[in-house]
Amino acid sequence: MLNNTKIMVRNLNLFYGEFQALKDINIDIKENKITALIGPSGCGKSTFLRTLNRMNDLIDHVRINGQILLDGLDIYDSQCDLITLRRNVGMVFQKPNPFPKTVYENIAYGPKIHGIKEKSTLDEIVEKSLRGAALWDEVKDRLDKPALGLSGGQQQRLCIARCLAVEPDVILMDEPTSALDPISTLKIENLLEELKKDYTIVIVTHNMQQAGRVSDETAFFLNGEIIEMNLTDSIFSKPKDKRTKDYITGRFG
Ligand SMILES: Nc1ncnc2c1ncn2[C@@H]1O[C@H](COP(=O)(O)OP(=O)(O)OP(=O)(O)O)[C@@H](O)[C@H]1O
């Protein structure tokens, strides 16, 4: 696809009942880049993020039209296999949500569901995923301990490792550091820089500095619309729309 576009969104509208939460969204999300979604509370960032792996399908009264092409294929097509889609497009949430199982089992769970049974293969996946999430050194001696005994920052990296274990192409992150302390936040921001070599990342953040630090491109949402999308440096240094400027300079939101 042109310009290394991984996800192409065209004329996307989403309604919760009568309420239109997304209005004619058109953006291209580039492969191996980090795209930040910013904007005031309630403007539709999380809703949009969830359209990218069809998590909104789980909500009643949602109506969606338009197109989202992942590697050129329409994810809302009736032929699209949801299990494969959610494997290809993983998600990390705001609050770390490990399963109440061991560290090892948290990572091995997904691969097992996808049919991998051999212990040595699972061991490899667990190590590789934990290394990929920059957590291996901290947990390699406690793989059989409960994941809920880890710190919040470790739990969030565990959730990232769990996501990596099924080998997605795209990782969606909904305010992944908002529940974490500054040091854990920095670890995850550094990790994102590493992960983008192998994955396409879309991140919702309320933290302007974070968007500026980690992302390559930024989309500014307001009232369900994308007001402006551009290279992050351009959005922050010379926003084209006054509303973008007002938001990033802290005048509202
Ligand atoms: N399940 C739902 N049913 C009805 N309305 C919803 C639902 N989820 C979200 N909305 C509404 O859709 C709009 C967009 O919400 P969304 O959570 O996507 O915004 P957001 O930009 O992510 O906000 P925040 O930054 O506060 O998380 C809001 O007006 C919200 O109230």
From TrEMBL:
Keyword check for Nucleotide-binding: yes
Domain of life per record: Bacteria
Domain ABC transporter: 7-248
One Pfam entry name: ABC_tran
A GO molecular-function descriptor: ATP binding
Keywords carried by this UniProt record: ATP-binding, Nucleotide-binding, Transport
Keyword Transcription regulation: no
InterPro entries: AAA+_ATPase (IPR003593), ABC_transporter-like_ATP-bd (IPR003439), ABC_transporter-like_CS (IPR017871), PstB-like (IPR005670)
SMART domains: AAA (SM00382)
Protein name (record): Phosphate ABC transporter ATP-binding protein PstB
Source species: Crassaminicella indica
Lineage: Bacteria, Bacillati, Bacillota, Clostridia, Eubacteriales
